[in-house]
Design brief:
220 residues; alpha/beta; Rossmann fold; nine-stranded mixed beta sheet; 6 helices
């Protein structure tokens, strides 16, 4: 998949959106963020989009009687900006099968765990409770299975003595920013495909997710 236009879906602060905006402004990403969509009217990420002159929309999920009705309206809104790629960057809604199938292979999600570990929410606390030595984040293709799509890339950080969920989340956040930028850069510069549970980069199947390096690159 070669891409030029992104639609970014957010629900909150938009810090990962800001990382993408900054990478576009610096020239690292040769893509256009064509639209930002939030399901929450007060999301701070909307102000980040406005400051950068990016068109944004609010589609409150509370205005719909069912998840399916929201997904249908969201799909129609996404289609208006004709994106090559949809990036879920802190979008706190589960997308249904109809939406996912409509944009199959064109939706990625940033998830704060080393998938397949700890799908869903409260991942930082789950890592603490399990006594894990490592935590991290993953970018994966979105499928109908919650956080179950094939993983493209990951970043790892150590769990330090005295860490609680808040400290762990705060230390992971900058690495999430680096990971989402590096992954979108990969998709912009290479042919990256989702085939079932496999990820192909330039027609070669990845044996394992790519790892974020200290220089910001992705390597096997």
């Amino acid at each position: 998949m070669r891409l030029r236009r992104l639609t970014v879906l957010i629900s909150g602060t938009g810090s990962n959106l800001q990382a993408l905006i900054d990478a576009c402004h610096s020239g690292r990403l040769s893509v256009e963020i064509s639209s930002v969509i939030s399901n929450r009217a007060g999301a701070a990420g909307l102000y980040r989009a406005a400051r950068s002159g990016i068109a944004s929309s609010v589609l409150p999920h509370t205005a719909f009687n069912s998840r399916e009705a929201f997904d249908t309206a969201l799909a129609e809104l996404v289609d208006r900006s004709a994106p090559d790629l949809i990036v879920l960057a802190g979008f706190m809604r589960i997308l249904g099968e109809a939406f996912v199938n409509r944009f199959a292979g064109r939706v990625i999600n940033l998830h704060p765990s080393l998938l397949p570990l700890y799908r869903g929410t409260q991942t930082h606390q789950q890592v603490i409770d399990a006594g894990d030595a490592q935590h991290g984040a993953s970018v994966h293709f979105v499928t109908a299975e919650l956080d179950g799509g094939p993983v493209i890339s990951q970043v790892r950080i150590p769990v330090l003595p005295g860490d609680d969920a808040a400290r762990l989340a705060a230390r992971l956040a900058p690495q999430e920013h680096r990971l989402i930028v590096a992954t979108v850069e990969l998709l912009a510069r290479h042919t990256v495909e989702c085939r079932g549970q496999a990820v192909l980069v330039d027609h070669v199947t990845l044996d394992n997710p790519l790892r974020l390096q200290t220089d910001g690159s992705l390597c096997p």
